[in-house]
């Protein structure tokens, strides 16, 4: 028997609360697409670099991250399309920065604290 076939929930209040608060399938699909962008090491390193720098051009990002410019350009295009990175042109140079509305909790918890957590875990003698 599936959850949908169940005649009466064990905890009707909790079920109703979950139904009200859980994002729609469409919202979750968009969210997983956005989060999947951050699972790529190149894109995530670019986000980190832009978090600690005000803004960087493609060439400077490539040097800072020891990548080639094609890798950086492709990753930035995906990040811009997702709205995570914005650009500013100064003459012929295009500077990249985190979007002004880049979610601060995502910045704080994903870009900063999770790295600290992974360092602690990898340094743990229990591993």
TrEMBL record:
What Pfam family does this protein match (any one)?
Answer: HTH_5
Name of the protein in question: HTH arsR-type domain-containing protein
Where, if anywhere, are coiled coils annotated?
none
Report domain HTH arsR-type positions: 23-118
Q: Where is the segment annotated Disordered? A: 1-22
By its UniProt entry, which CDD domains does this protein fall under? HTH_ARSR (cd00090)
Q: Which organism is it from?
A: Terrabacter carboxydivorans
Question: Where is there biased composition of kind Low complexity?
Answer: 1-18
Establish whether keyword DNA damage is in the entry.
no
- Domain of life of the source: Bacteria
**Which UniProt keywords are given for this protein, alphabetically ordered?**
DNA-binding, Transcription, Transcription regulation
InterPro entries with a match to the protein in the record:
ArsR-like_HTH (IPR011991), HTH_ArsR_DNA-bd_dom (IPR001845), Metal_resp_trans_reg (IPR051011), WH-like_DNA-bd_sf (IPR036388), WH_DNA-bd_sf (IPR036390)
